[in-house]
Amino acid sequence: MPNIVIIGAGVSGLTSAYLLSKDRSNHIAVVAKHMPGDLDIDYASPWAGANFMPMSAKPGSRWERATWPYLKRLATHVPEAGIHLQRCRLYRRRKDEEKLERDSTMLSNVFAADPWYRELFDDYRNLERSELPEGIASGCEFGSVCINPVLYLPWLVGQCRANGVTFHRKTVAHVSELRHLSVDGIKADIIVNATGLSARKLGGVLDDTMYPIRGQTVVVRNVAPYMAVESGTNDGDDQANYLMTRAVGGGTILGGTLQIGNWESQPDLSIANQIMQRAVNLVPALTDSKGIEHLDVVRHGVGLRPGREAGVRLEKEQIDGVWVVHNYGHAGWGYQGSYGCAEEVANLVNSIIPVAKL
């Protein structure tokens, strides 16, 4: 029976623990500084939208492809998970067309004119000219999902607990601590590093290619008729325009920002006003065309997405004599790649187990 310790209780760590715990021969503990229910700028998962909107290029799409069936099944068959089906509309602005064609980024992948992900959705369609807001050159629509993190993260904890996973609140300074520190009376044979942005400071890892992508949002009580995402804004390249209504009364989240390298934890109210104005301009039905003053604000939020220069790190290595499986650096697609990445974590752990038992 291998002893597996997972560092981190965000969506990546919890999903990894959930899938690994389905094999009851594994003894699994989750050790984390932050747990579901916490609201800390470094703990990105509670601040996410969260939804499924593929961001990868086709050659690197395996994690998102693998995740979609899980999220769709939860939305349709497991209401207590806090996920619901929601139409998603993507709008390509005329002024962004040249940039989208020129650049090879996550944004250009999302707004590709003929995206690979159309094959994932039975109801994918291009929008008619009459359905496009002013200034929008083209767009598409498909049935997606929106996740309420307030419900979904505790649901994952519950599934893990039902499978025997234990949870421990602790700040880990160095990976080797878990090699020598007894957790539940056992010592780690394998460690899964799902620390997100904290991988920058985790001893034994110290990944200085990690950087924050500051996301500022506004949650309102108004209900959006559909999820909407625009290809750009007039307020700067580090701004974004999206909105989605979370499941089970979670409110509608309006976003946002994509501020690379910005660690500021407090909301900027001028940016918040821009976010709200962009949202009502894009989807006037949000306030029955009555304007920004008719948004019923629940709260303002700021979270730091865990960016990494080379993208997600999903691999195994030995650190101070213990095997470590890394699963971090997901930037803004942690939820929508969570199950695909967790499956790969499980495969890596299984490749180590015969060695770890020696």
Task: Explain the overall architecture.
The protein contains 8 helices and 15 strands. The N and C termini lie close together (12 Å). The relative contact order is 0.21. A hairpin with an 8-residue loop joins strand 9 and strand 10. Helix 2 packs across helix 8 (338-356). The longest helix has 19 residues, at 338-356. The chain has helices at 11-21, 62-77, 97-102, 106-110, 149-162, 177-180, 269-282, 338-356, and strands at 3-7, 27-32, 83-93, 125-126, 136-147, 166-169, 190-193, 210-220, 227-230, 239-245, 252-257, 259-260, 297-308, 313-319, 322-328. Strands 3, 4, 5, 8, 9, 10, 11, 12 and 13 form a 9-stranded mixed beta sheet that branches. Strands 6-2-1-7-15-14 form a 6-stranded mixed beta sheet, covered by helices on one side. By secondary structure, it is of the alpha/beta class.
